[in-house]
Structure formats: C-alpha cells, structure tokens
Amino acid sequence: MTSLFDAPAAARYEPLAARMRPRVLDEYLGQEHILARGKPLREALEQGMLHSMIFWGPPGVGKTTLARLIATKTDAHFETLSAVLSGVKDIREAVARAKDEQRFYQRKTVLFVDEVHRFNKSQQDAFLPHIEDGTVIFIGATTENPSFELNNALLSRARVYVLKSLGEEAIGQLVDQALTNEERGLGGKEIQLEKSARDILIRYSDGDGRKALNTLEIASDLAENGIITSEAVQAILADTGRRFDKGGDAFYDTISAFHKSVRGSNPDAALYWAARIVDGGGDPLYVIRRLVAIASEDIGNADPRALEITINAWQAFERLGAPEGLLALAHATVYCACAAKSNAVYKAWKAALDDVKSNPSYEVPHHLRNAPTQLMGSLGYGDGYRYAHDEPNAYAAGERYFPEEMDVPDYYQPNDRGLEIKIKEKLAWLKRLDEESTLKKR
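Now predict its structure.
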C-alpha cells in the first residue's frame, strides 16, 4: 500500500477530484454520445487526426480532462490558458512555445482555453491566425452558448461538441473508483460509504463529477470511525446550491421551461421550474415579471384577472420578501397555469405593429381630431364625429376609425376560451350593426 508521504509533495495536496482525473481515454466516464467507439470524434482521435473544437457543457462534466486526454492520446504538447486570468500577452507566449515545439520537436500543440467565453472579441481574434496556419490545435471550454458568446470567425474554425451532465451511473462509478483506488483515491484510508449516503451523494451532485468527489473528500475527512453516513453527506450538501447559472444559458433554459409549463396549463411543472429558479438563487421578481408578461401574452382577455393577480403578486413580494412573499409567486403561478389561454391580444398587437412599420404615416382623419381652438375648428377638425354615447347601444354603427388610405384590418380575433367567448359574441354583434348601417346608407 502506497503511503501518503511516499507521494510527491505537490500530489499530496491535490484535491481528490484532481487526483482522480482519468489518465487514458478508456477511463473517461460519460459523454458516450461523442466518445463511444465508432463516433466521429473517437475515430478521429484513434487515427491521430486532430481538429480545433469547442466543448460546451455545464461545470464538472470533464471538459478540461477531455482536452488533456486528447493531447495525450495524440502525443501533442499541451498548453493551457484560463480566460479569467490570461490576456493577449499570455496568448502570445503560449503560441511562441507552440512554435518551438513545432520547430524543434515536430510536435503539434493543443492549446486549451478554459472559460473561453470570458475573452473579448479582440482576444478571441488573437487565436485566429495561429489556428489557421496550424500552429495550434485550439480547444475551448465554455459553460455558455457559443452561438452568443464566441465570434463567428472562431466558431467557423472549430467544431462544437456538447458535453452533457453526468448520469447517476457515471457519478456512481466515479465515487466507487475514488473509494477503492489506493494510489490516487481514498482506498488507503479504508473509508466506508453507507448505501443511503452514496445514493444522496449521487443524486445531489446534480450531474457534476467534481462536486461529487469534493463532497466525498470532505465527508471522508469528517468520517467517524471511517464510516460516512447519510447525515454527514446531507450536512455537507446543505450549504451547496443546485446547479443554476443566474445569468447564463442554464438560466434562460429554466425560465423557458417555466414559461412553457404555464402556457401549457401544467401548474405542477410550472411550480417545479419556479422552485428550481428560486432554489438556485434566481431572483423571484424576475419570475413574477415573466408571469406579468404571460398574463397578456398567453392569457390575455380569456381571463383578464390574470394580469391583476400577477401585479398583486409583484406588490406582495416587494412588501413581504422571502420566504413569505414566495407564496404570492406560487399563487400567481398556479392561477396563470390554470387560467384559460389566448394569444389573440398578442397576435393583434404584433399585426398592428407590422402594419405601422410597413405603411406610410397616414394622416389622422379630420373627424377623429380634436378642435380645442377656433382655427382648428375652421380647418374642419372634428367635423362629422359621432359621439358613441349619443348613439343607440352607445355604438356609432358604421363609423370609420382608420385612415382613409387603409383597408380596415381585423387584428383582434378572440378565440372560444374563457371570457373571450363573450367578447367574440359582442364583436360579431357590432360587426352586424356596421353591416346594417352600410346597407341603409346605400
């Protein structure tokens, strides 16, 4: 058995997650969708055919590890930069070392850039000529959507691979390997992990292998009599949040799932996604503001009370804060999810905007203009206007409210749900009055 004190000094202080990095591609767990035998990336690596690439995925799924394994597999020199700590000067120095490797040793260089989305446009552009002339094989890692965060020029020179959260089976294998590996893991400490503790650790690691191993390492240090209990794991995990990026891609994906669940009239799913956002540190007011938008966009006049309830929830949360105010958020979420749905107002508004943008700015008809001065009255402002309250049913049948140059459009088309059933009936009746008025004029 290898003693801890027999290991190199640097290795003794490496975190468990770093020590347990796989050393060959066959030890790498997860990402079978791109690395299984027969997959294009695996085949390219087996044949030593490197190309520049972007790894896009959540934290702790092995982006850095995979880049190192690719360099090892293809016998390439490995250079690494962090966009958080590096600048153009560091890029130049890394490229200079890559040129030396190419000149003196005829070796390719894999230049790995972690958090590449944090580089600005000019910093990203600095890589382009060196990728183009083959000085480096560029591998960037990002947790953000490359379509939005990376230059098109860089994206056109690299293939994007999506890395997924690790499944429970892969996390379980990581944990078991760490417990039994005597050389790099905890095998020499004779640690026992209760089954219930293992289940909790796997479930709440949230697909993040690094989080699983870090939690396991802390639990092993605190284990009494060499046994890690479920209570110990729960105590450690209690202070660590679920994976949620308050400003990145995961945030917008979760908000999208919330909106679609409300629109789809599923209150349980809507509550689940709202809880995910709040539990992950998202702003509850952002969720409520989204509900206010939903009240008009997806519910509209099918249930006008939805707008009132969402505004009330907004005010209630501002007055109460968390946790009490979160019930107002839940109240509004459930109401909006259960309410009758109509996007007729949303579609009508879009159609009206499209007409305004695609047509000239027609003059306001004279009969619709106010005449607060004698001059304006002498110019015919307000002439012929029919005051609706003086008409039968308070409706000026046949009156025209659009510019003369326009065909009369039909923007708002209520559906057969909720209050819009009554609105549809009312508008149909008014339309009949208009038609009758037109016939009388003839």
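Residues 420-441 form the longest helix (22 residues).
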